[in-house]
Amino acid sequence: MTIHDSHALADSSSVVAALMEARRLHTSRSSKFKKSQSGISTNQPTKRMMVGVLSDALKKLAKDTKAPTCGKDFKTGQTLMKTILAPGFKARLLGMNGWFSTNILGNRDGEVLDDPESFKTKEESKLSVLDSILQPELYPDLYGKLYHKVRINYYPPRGDNKEGWDNIDIFGWCGMPMQIKVDFLCRDSILAAPLV
After folding, report:
1. What is the pLDDT of residue 124?
2. What is the C-alpha to C-alpha distance for residues 184 and 88, in angstroms, rounded to an integer?
3. Residues 172-190, buried b or exposed e (16+ Cβ, 10 A)?
C-alpha cells in the first residue's frame, strides 16, 4: 500500500466522520492524538503509552491503512504496586474488603487525566487489574465484595514526580480485619524508561 492509497482510505467518509468525532472527544490530548493520526494515516508504525489515546476511530483507520500499532498503559506507578501486592495477598489467601487509591500527578498525564472523559478510560484499566489478579469469581469469600476506588488528582507543582497513596483493607484467618497503607513517591519517566 502506498502513502497515496493510505490517504485515499483515510478520506473515506466513515473514517473522516469517525476521526472528526474522535478529535472532538480528545481535545485535551490533541498532540498525542494528532501524532497517532499522522503516523497511522501515512502507514507508519505507531505506539502509545497511555490508555485511551488510540481511539476506536484511530483503530479503524489503522485497520484500513494496515498501519501497525502497539502500546498500552505500562503500569509505572500505583497500578505497578497493585500488580506486585495483589498476587501476594492471593497467594496467602488474605481476603480483601476494599482498596482505595489516589494519585497526585503534575505532568502532562495528570493534566490529561484531570479531564473526566480521559480519566474514564484510565479508571477502567486501573479497576480491572485487581479482578484479573484476584479472580473474585473463583474466590468469592475472599474477593467477592471488594470495593475498589481510584482517584487521580492533577497538581502542577508535582511535575514529573508522582505520588500514589493506597489504603487496603484486608482480612485474615477468622475474618480478622487489617489495613495496609502504601505511599509510593516516584518519578514517572524514570520508571517508564526501561520499558521503552
Report:
1. 79
2. 18
3. eeeeeeeeeeeeeebebee
Could you tell me what percentage of the chain is helix, strand and coil, using 3-state DSSP and rounding each to the nearest 5? Answer: 55, 25, 25
**Which three cell numbers mark 75?**
503500569
- Helices and strands, number each (H, E), in the chain: 9, 6
Distance CA 71, CA 76 (A): 14
Residue 94: predicted pLDDT: 97
| Strand duo 161-171 + 177-187: pairing | antiparallel
In sequence order, which residues have a C-beta less than 8 Å from that of residue 20 and are 6 or more positions away? none
- Return the pLDDT at 4: 44
The pLDDT of residue 28 is: 42
Distance, in Å, from the CA atom of 154 to the CA atom of 110, rounded to the nearest integer, reads: 5
Measured distance CA(25)–CA(20) in Å, rounded: 9
Q: Which three cell numbers mark 169? A: 483493607
Segments in the chain below pLDDT 50: 1-10, 26-29, 49-51, 53, 196
Taking CA atoms, 127 is separated from 30, 162, 177, 189, in Å, by 25, 19, 22, 23
In the prediction, which pLDDT does 108 show? 80
